[in-house]
Amino acid sequence: MGNWKLNGSKTMVAELIKALKVPATECPTVAVAICPPVLFLGQAQTLLADSAIILGAQDASLNTEGAYTGENSARMYSEFDVQYVLVGHSERRTLHQEDDALVAEKFAVIQQAGLTPVLCIGETNEQFEAKETQAVVERQLQAVIDKCGITALNKAVIAYEPVWAIGTGKTATPEIAQQVHADIRAFLANSDAEIANKVQILYGGSVKGASAAGLFAMPDIDGALVGGAALNADEFAAIIQAGA
Ligand code: PEP
Question: What residues does substrate bind to (predicted)?
Fold first, then answer.
């Protein structure tokens, strides 16, 4: 899944989508999704009409409609065939002060609109150094479980994204990521073993074509949430191919 963040232009959207259709078609067993900025969703929807590439959005308002200047609602995304919405991305948590309670509320609103939330969780570098990773991701997950119930994870994706790896070029080793993914499943299994086993857990944090295969070889890593490399057709194609 590619997170384009605040990047793109009409030309870039057209070129990148055209290029990505090739590996997406050649690797039909890999679910490929892209999350362009909201302004490009209409263009992307049109360009993807003949493709299996899925559209996602990067954030959603807590509200469906009304006097909320500048916001975009999950219900509106449905009109653009958006299926996934990122929630709790570290950039939203940090730059927009989105706390666990707000993230859980947004998660609920996204599901109520019939879309699939991609719940982003992960520790900062300080927390990693202090060996607090497990406590942090459990707290972030628990907030959603408290608000929505464990069964809400039947229709959700989790993205483990250590903040120290996002946009830094410092990917977690496959072993480190695998351990956290396994810990996440063990934590969820305390509430529901079947859901823990079934829920898709993506890894995110400086994934590139060269690092993807090692990560995907791990038993509890089900895919990747990709930022920078998702803007480069060759890199993203290599990540798709690594998942095939
Ligand atoms: C992200 O923004 O979710 C991300 C993982 O970014 P990058 O791949 O650039 O680290």
Answer: 3-5, 167, 206, 227-228
